[in-house]
Amino acid sequence: MLRIILTMAFALITTVASAGTIGEDGLHKQDWFALTFRDIAEDIETAAADGKRLALVFEQRGCIYCAKMHEELLSDPEVADYLQEHFLIVQYNMFGDEEVTDLDGDVLTEKTAARKWGYVFTPTIVFLPAEVPANSISVSKAAVATMPGAFGKWTFLNMFKWVFDRGYEGDEHFQKYHARIIEQLRAEGRLK
User: Fold this and answer.
1) Rounded distance, CA 123 to CA 90, Å?
2) Model-level pTM?
3) InterPro entries under this entry (predicted)?
């Protein structure tokens, strides 16, 4: 009986640890999220230097969909491994006061940046271009894709893959790309 209890306790601890922790700001944290000075141009360059893309994730305290994203998606090894290998992810608090420097040079707080860029849902993931835009534009205009909300594993992961592969530059819309990948997964027996 003690063995069963210890096994269950270990499983619970492992699940909680892989789902991240909750910081003082009330947001779930992943130890692989990047801590930066929140200068968007600098973050794009840092990501590019490592062969990665920049993604911003807006969250808020008490967001049940943010918790779901951390507990079900970011704790999935297939998802977490892909994101860590291909993306620099910086977390933003939709109502936070940390300083942010927009691509157009405006210095804002996280909450004024969210308002300026028009992000009202959490989580919202904003995908930035592979290079810093040549002209001075805001993040919302420079973004190559935005994913508002928490989706299932394959929609979530496929969006990251589509962005990393620059699918937005081609003729295949994300929804068509996603449907094609789902069919491939079914053919391989990975989905029913």
Assistant:
1) 13
2) 0.88
3) SoxW (IPR041737), Thioredoxin-like_fold (IPR012336), Thioredoxin-like_sf (IPR036249)
